[in-house]
Design goal:
The protein contains 13 helices and no strands. The chain is mainly α. The longest helix is centred in the middle third of the chain and has 48 residues. GO terms for molecular function: protein phosphatase 2A binding.
Length: 343
């Protein structure tokens, strides 16, 4: 699509469709579409995938060139009045005051939403008109000169709105391109810094490892200390077996049980289980004992069978409950409560 747009740009320049002596009021509706070409080329080149930073940098510079050319055309043909251009441009990069920059971005954002709303409104209006023409029963042409002029005026307004929207987006893209070019320039400078080769780094690492290398101590049997006093294998100093008594043995065993970093028990296991049971962390019930117990429903039926006043009241309650359930099933279909309000 970029190549097709570039071909259109060449043909427009070769045929001289656009004249620098005209304004948008002097141009025909068909010629206004030619102003969009450079803006679309710049937008698409920003989105193009590239391999490596150098290729990306080249495409960004070309995209910026086309966007600047598009902006120059819009201002030359007076598509946007001079006193309104600052709203489309947004805050300039030279402005350091954050409050002023934020206010400029807010104005630009509101203007962008307004233009998008107009374009969507034009699109909806055109779709409704196409549907009405499609379902029309009158196949004869009923278009008049007034209708044609009205359609041309609406089409001209759509193209003008598109140009204003692309003019605003071009300034946003140029700002993003400048930031990305700065990052690419910084990364290229980092790549130009000379680095040590891998072999040099490996030799330096090995030399450093050798300087910190420790002697291997033998863990097997053999002399403990060499003639020069050098320790030849690891050892552990233990108390003499001759000095062991019952008291020292008790102290040693106690020191092995009660260490400073060990937590001593604060309750027995039975106390812990009782506390958990009082907190309700244990489930109760179940098993064959509970299966043999009489349920509430069985108890009510049994009491209803008794030949006394309480039994008669229980039987009457069961009868009323059965009647209410029959009435409910007659007026409510099965599964009606799970139909999610569907008929």
């Amino acid at each position: 699509s970029i190549s097709d747009l570039k071909l259109c740009d060449k043909l427009i320049k070769r045929l001289g469709i656009l004249s620098s002596n005209e304004t948008i009021e002097d141009m025909t509706t068909k010629d206004i579409k030619c102003l969009i070409v450079n803006g679309l080329i710049g937008m698409l080149m920003v989105l193009r995938k590239t391999n490596g930073g150098n290729e990306r940098k080249a495409f960004l510079e070309l995209a910026k060139h086309h966007l600047l050319e598009f902006i120059e055309q819009i201002e030359s043909y007076e598509v946007i009045q001079v006193n309104e251009r600052s709203k489309y441009q947004g805050p300039l990069s030279t402005i350091k005051n954050q409050a002023i920059r934020r206010e400029g971005k807010i104005i630009q954002y509101k203007l962008e939403k307004e233009l998008q709303f107009k374009l969507n409104e034009y699109k909806t209006r055109k779709e409704e008109k196409n549907r009405s023409n499609l379902h029309s029963t009158n196949h004869r042409s009923t278009r008049t000169l007034d209708n044609e002029e009205e359609e041309e005026e609406g089409e001209r307004e759509v193209y003008t709105t598109w140009l204003k929207f692309l003019y605003l987006k071009s300034y946003q893209e140029i700002n993003s391109i400048d930031q990305e070019l700065d990052l690419l320039g910084t990364s290229s400078q980092m790549e130009s810094i000379p680095h040590r080769s891998k072999s040099t780094e490996k030799d330096a690492t090995e030399a450093e490892d050798l300087s910190w290398k420790l002697d291997q101590l033998s863990t097997k049997s053999g002399p403990l200390i060499g003639p020069t006093g050098k320790i030849l294998r690891p050892f552990t100093i233990l108390p003499s077996s001759k000095s062991f008594t019952s008291a020292t043995d008790r102290i040693r065993l106690r020191s092995e049980v009660f260490r400073p970093d060990w937590n001593l028990p604060t309750m027995t296991i039975d106390e812990y289980l009782d506390e958990q049971e009082s907190m309700g962390n244990f489930l109760k019930g179940g098993g064959p004992a509970q299966a043999e117990e009489e349920t509430d429903g069985e108890r009510v039926k049994r009491e209803a069978e008794d030949d006394n006043l309480n039994g008669e009241e229980m039987a009457e309650g069961l009868r009323k409950k059965a009647i209410e359930w029959d009435e409910f099933t007659d007026t409510h279909r099965k599964g009606e409560g799970n139909m999610m309000n569907r008929g």
